[in-house]
UniProtKB/TrEMBL annotation:
Membrane topology term: Multi-pass membrane protein
The keyword Transmembrane helix is assigned to this record: yes
Protein's name in the database: Amino acid ABC transporter permease
Family: Belongs to the binding-protein-dependent transport system permease family.
Length: 210
């Protein structure tokens, strides 16, 4: 019981990383997706380079880069927590952007044309007709990304963020016991179970868009 109580503050840090990353990367990912689909090369090509770098290099490397690079360039460092949020946000926005893009491009062109005939403007068409269908279609790949994010929060410990895995490792070393790792594993499993069930519920609620 004391072990669980001691791990609660670190669990809060893990949850903060998870939710802040979801919020920021979901918003940024939408802009990146539209940039990726832009007809203008001056916008599209830099976005493609960004996507290649973020998806083509390890997240653990990005965490270390965003924590240490500001020191060598500007002589200062970001707070460990916010360096982690920055790295997670940029990394996950790249994956989420591609999920958004695939969802948007999967909608038949005929639906845009039909909306125009019915007198809908572009903004109204997107938010009232296209977006609900896109959300329905991207839930499965998004649920995979969210479940991966739950586990990836453990990587924040490489720059010293005191999340649950870092504390579990330190406690295991001091107590010569694997129990802290088991408790941490249960935490991640419970959190991913909640994520999986929420995504399943949302997917069922949107079944009328089939």
């Amino acid at each position: 019981m004391n072990l669980v109580k001691n791990m609660l503050p670190s669990s809060v840090v893990t949850l903060e990383i998870f939710f802040l990353t979801i919020i920021f990367s979901s918003i940024l990912g939408m802009f990146v997706a539209f940039g990726r689909m832009s007809k203008f090369a001056i916008i599209r090509i830099p976005i493609q380079v960004f996507l290649l770098i973020m998806r083509g290099t390890p997240l653990i490397l990005q965490l270390m880069f965003f924590y240490f690079a500001p020191y060598y360039v500007f002589g200062m460092t970001l707070p460990r927590f916010w360096a982690a949020i920055l790295a997670f946000t940029l990394n996950y926005s790249a994956y989420i952007a591609e999920i958004y893009r695939s969802g948007i491009e999967s909608i038949p062109v005929g639906q845009y044309e039909a909306a125009t005939v019915l007198g809908f403007g572009k903004t109204e068409t997107f938010f009232k007709i296209i977006l609900p269908q896109v959300i329905k279609r991207i839930i499965p790949p998004m649920s995979n990304e969210l479940m991966t994010l739950v586990k990836d929060t453990a990587l924040a410990q490489v720059i010293g963020v005191a999340e649950i895995f870092k504390l579990a490792g330190a406690t295991m070393s001091s107590q010569f016991s694997t129990v802290p790792l088991i408790v941490a594993g249960i935490f991640y499993l419970v959190m991913n179970t909640v994520v999986e069930r929420l995504c399943f519920y949302l997917e069922k609620k949107l079944d009328y868009y089939e």
